[in-house]
Amino acid sequence: MIKLLGLRHSIYSRIVVLACLSALSITFVLWILTDTTISRANQIALERAVDVDMAGLVDIYTSNGLPELQDRIADRIALEPRKGTLTHYMLIGGQGQRLAGDLTRWPDLHASLSQTGKIAVDRNRHAYGRVTQLGPNLRLLVAHEARDLNTLRRQVGFVFFAGGLIIVAAVALTGLIAVRRLATRIERLNTAFRTPDDAALEALSRHLENEDEIGELTRHSANALTRLRRLASANRETTDHVAHEIRTPLMHLDNRLVKTLAATPDPETARRIASARSEIRRIIRMLESLLDIAASQARRGDRHGLVPVDLSEIAQRLGELYADSAEETGHALILDIEPDVVIPGEEMALTRLITNLLDNAFKFVPKGGTITLALEAGPRLTVRDDGPGIPEGQREQVFEKFSRAGQHPEGNGAGLGLTLCRAIAQRHHLEIALVDTPQGACFTVTPETTT
């Protein structure tokens, strides 16, 4: 039932199970106490009956002598049903001869001490008895059975068993209904935090009528998420505005430089203008990378907008594209791509992730080096090379902004490529790592590990 209600791995299912076990344990303890009480009460009643019976026979002997005692014992035995006799007697003389009664064997009890204890009626039956010394050569045994006790105990046990099942069923049903409602309310909160879109916030707003603790938490969560969305929206608008205000003057400046070059200046001036244009384009690329990093980090863990993407097809396409460039640059590119590796993601962002890793490898691997692009189910994406690698002292900072691992011959780049790779990976619930290898550098992209 818990599995059908979707609570199999939920804390609510553990609460229901704990409540049922508690009800079952309480019922069991009550049955033990009741059974013990019944047994004790029966034993007390049995002892009292034996004592009363013994006292009556002693009084008969004292008042009327031995013959009368023998007659009364015979009468009492005769009054018992032929099957299921519950009272037993034995009267023996000084030589051990049986004078009256239905028992044939004297128990291991001392008559002089008027001892009591359990005695054997036959091989399968027992009774509680008392022995006493009536005279120097006369001993009396009185024993009673409690045959109805087991029947009573079975009846009481059945009542507790049936009652326990009813109680456990009632607790389970009530608990499941209650925790199902609670789970639904908590799930609205989790949905709103997982995908804080308009639909999720509207669902929270429709259920703010409850005045309990969960209702208060829902109200605060809805307000906090609304404020965060406003802040995030304002931040994006401000960032886009600033980026536009910076990019537009730079583009105008670049156009002016193009017009200046068109006027055929002297070679030195042309060289400086070309260098300035390269610097402008570098600044624009750095600005765009910073915006991409900020956008990916802002949507970290957000599955909204992710659709099934064939990562194998992206890796194969990029691998073939870079293979043509590898021939021109004197590199060897090895592709080991497993087909049909599909993950939820954004195709453009994943393309940017693989492109940056390959660009980074081609940038630092000398001519004649080998680069490997591998993909297997999991997913597990690997970009490995046999270049100079990354110095050990710089490996911890390799994914930080403006960090440059190693020395590139041209000395360009803003040190944002791997930072963007990490931001894209985290957006897709993946993690990128630099793996130790004997030679070169090896980057892996694998699913996030949960802690």
Automatic annotation (TrEMBL):
Transmembrane segments annotated in the record for this chain: 12-33, 158-179
Keyword annotations from UniProtKB, A to Z: Kinase, Membrane, Phosphoprotein, Transferase, Transmembrane, Transmembrane helix
Superkingdom of this protein's organism: Bacteria
GO molecular function: kinase activity
EC number, UniProt record: 2.7.13.3
Catalytic activity: ATP + protein L-histidine = ADP + protein N-phospho-L-histidine
UniProt key word Membrane: yes
Chief localization: membrane
InterPro entries: HATPase_C_sf (IPR036890), HATPase_dom (IPR003594), His_kinase_dom (IPR005467), HisK_dim/P_dom (IPR003661), HisK_dim/P_sf (IPR036097), Sig_transdc_His_kin-like_C (IPR004358), TCS_sensor_his_kinase (IPR050428)
Domain called Histidine kinase: residue spans: 241-451
Family matches, as PROSITE patterns: HIS_KIN
Keyword Membrane in annotation: yes
Compartment annotation: Membrane
CDD domains recorded: HATPase (cd00075), HisKA (cd00082)
PANTHER family with a match to the protein in the record: HISTIDINE KINASE (PTHR45436:SF8), SENSOR HISTIDINE KINASE YKOH (PTHR45436)
Protein name (record): histidine kinase
Taxonomic source organism: Novosphingobium decolorationis
